Amino acid sequence: MISKLIKKHIGRIGTLLLASVLLAVLLEFLQIHNQPPAYENNLQVVQEADLLDFSQAELTNAYLDGGSLKTGGEGSTILLRFQPAKELSYLQIEAKKHVRSPFPIRVYWSKDGETFSETNMIEIQAIPESVAWSGTIPEDEYAALKIEMDNKMTIRFLKCRAEVKEKVPVREQMRLWRIGIMIPGLFLILSLLCWFRTGKRLTAAVQQMISFLKESGWRTPLRFIIFLTLSFLAYVLIRWLISGAFFGKVNVPQQLFCILAGLTAGLLLSFPKTLGRKPERLFVLFCLLSGWMILYLFPNDLTVNWDMEYHFEQTHLYSYLGEERLTNPDMSIIFMEGSHDSFEWEERIKSQESQQEQYELGVFYTERKGLMLNSIYEIFPAAGMYMGRLLHLSWPWTMYFAKLFNLLTVAACGFFAIRRLKNGKMILACVMLIPTNIFLASVFSYDHGVTSFMALGLSYYFAEWQEAEKKLTYRNAFVILGSLTIALLTKAFYAPVLLFTAIMPRGKWAESREEKLQYISRKRYFLFSGLVLLISLIPYILPLLQGNVVTDMRGGTSTTPMEQIRFILEDPLRYLQIMFNCQKECFNPANSAGILTFFAYEGIGPGWQVLCVLLALVALTDKKPSDRLLERKPFIRILGLFLFYISTCIICFCLYITFTEVGASYINGVQCRYFLPFVFPVLMLAASGFAAKMINVDREWKQQLYNGIAYSVSLIVLFINIYINCISKFS
User: Which domain of life does the protein's organism represent (predicted)?
Assistant: First the structure.
């Protein structure tokens, strides 16, 4: 089958391959010409020094000796006349050797060439530590210059302008190895864009938008005016709540908060049809508006963000595809050399100006390094970092661009995931708008990437149950397995999820030869699932086989994986007790804030109890008849929940053997955010549709109201957390 497909599409494959090669060369060319330069060790003279010719000087108690001038001691005078007058602002006297003791040299200047006075004089101190001494003259044109001293010395040069030196950029060559890495990646991306008919879909979307604008006529500008009006009213109200007065005094971060929160409220109130029919479109805007505040205002500081130095370094490496080119601001983050930003606005502005000055000094450290496959998610913020350099943005704004691409990735995953679901859209939307998830999406991290791509893959999986009458297409299977590949490469803890996606409704698999051309068979799906599992585990299995398991400082020097495994095998009941105690702590509803409203080192925000109630309610009510097939399969639902529980056991096991000292009665490193990817699938599996029958959302206005309430509660909690954990800390 594969050989037939290759023969059929050989022309298209060749075109895509050629396009990949040309695009890789273009991207490398742009990389070389827009990256911060590295400089040679030696400076290059770009302008020679301006030397005064003392061969025509009028000398007193001094004489010429070859190319030098020797002074005789007391009363030595050198008179230089210039015709026409010479512009002077500086004089440097360079001796042939060091003097024995310090002495003064008097320098006079005259505009008429005859009159010299003490008011037009500077005194330059000759010191033994140097052979060159200089002074500044008021910048002007002078007809004469007189130099007096009372000591013997040999003068090599008199300079009225020092030589100008500049750093010489290293001549960079295009990296063939980097082009070689890009070609297969670009070929894969272009092939997928072709396979999913992205060009046709974008064209159709643009045409649909144009036709909509033509048909709507005056209603579109009217709707826009209503949106701006409602946004302004919301802005005024929020500003009043913050400052205690209408248009009361607020600082810059508070002003930004009021504007973005007002726009969010305006969107929620102005577009009811979009809210009811296409909630994924509003989700993208809500995600970007709330996340922008965090990525722009939250400090790039190691003391407020989890593992920022590691994620920044991996992003930086991926932006150069394996070459480390560090400027001073880059090194200060990677090597944890102090603070970059703070919650003091004026200090932040000064800090960013200093960072830019350091960035413009160029690269101080270069080294070719490999790329870590288990940091593959960092390629998304790395694309933003690359674009920032391409657009010649300042260093702080290049950082913002990298984090913006982080946020865009989450918004895109959420958009396609919510759109694919027939029901449960608001379950996923509320999960994706959890404050912890938006916070992680707006800083240097990859935990949100696991949540987003798992949500994308599992939304396509649940949609297959909602459309049980349709067979599983290759495209949908690819989205499921491709999304889970990125999630599992980042953190292989969640590998049991793959087993769950293999459980499909009866009749989903292709049976006949004709069906297999368009739909996937069970065997092929299992084969591809095994391949995904192998690819995901390779980055973790190889170090284990080589004895290079990475441990953590939290475990101290007594962290030894093999010894820890031996301890578990010798006393498995003891280990199970330790694991259950850890899980009991993590799954305690009172600790839900660690999953829902945790802003790293800035602490836990309010409203997690409200979110718990909201998530429970949408899980019970966001159900339709198409969900009943899965609801009637309690064994499958229990099996799915059990597989997710197995994932939590794997998390505990891995962190116990790598992050915890041998035989400890606790497990180090288990953080609540690791369980965030489970929230969406658990809500989809655990709740039934009984409550949905009671509220019966069967009309459009009911759907608009339902979605509006769910979004409103989520966004209010989200914005309150952003204000308390970020905005309110600015003075």
Answer: Bacteria
441 closest CA partner among 403, 472, 412? 403
Q: What is the 3-state secondary structure (H, E, C) of 154-188?
A: EEEEEEEECCEEEEEECCCCCCHHHHHHHHHHHHH
Q: What residue ranges define each of the domains in the chain, with the CATH number in brackets?
A: 48-166 (2.60.120.260), 308-363+365-729 (no CATH)
User: Whose structure tokens read 């003259």?
Assistant: 137
Burial degree of 518 (CB within 10 A; 0-12, 13-18, 19+): exposed
Residue 160, phi-psi category: left (phi > 0), alpha (psi -120 to 50), beta (remainder): alpha
- Please tell me whether residue 324 adopts helix, strand or coil conformation: strand
Give me the residue label for tokens 């990859």: 446
Reading the block at residue 611, the tokens are: 């979110």
d(CA 599, CA 607): 13
On average, the pLDDT of the chain sits at 88
Question: Among 390-404, 492-506, 688-702, which is the least confidently predicted range?
Answer: 688-702
Look at the block and give the residue holding tokens 């000094």. Answer: 361
How far apart are alpha carbons 58 and 77 in whole angstroms?
Answer: 8
CA 111 to chain CA centroid, Å, is 61
pLDDT band of residue 340 (cuts 50, 70, 90) is low
| Reported confidence tier of residue 162, pLDDT bands at 50, 70, 90 | confident
- Residue the block writes with tokens 């150069």: 320
pLDDT for position 554: 47
Q: How far apart (Å, rounded) are the C-alpha atoms in residues 233 and 333?
A: 41
> Is the per-residue pLDDT at 659 higher than 90?
no
Nearest to 134 by CA among 100, 157, 112, 151: 157
Specify the pLDDT at position 2. Answer: 57
Helix axes 425-432, 447-466, angle to 10 degrees: 180
Three-state DSSP class for residue 624: coil
Q: Between vectors from CA 556 to CA 555 and to CA 561, what angle results, nearest 5°?
A: 55
Largest distance between two CA atoms of the chain: 114
Nearest Cα to Cα of residue 432 among 691, 265, 618: 618
Q: State the pLDDT at residue 439.
A: 95
pLDDT at 323 over 80: yes
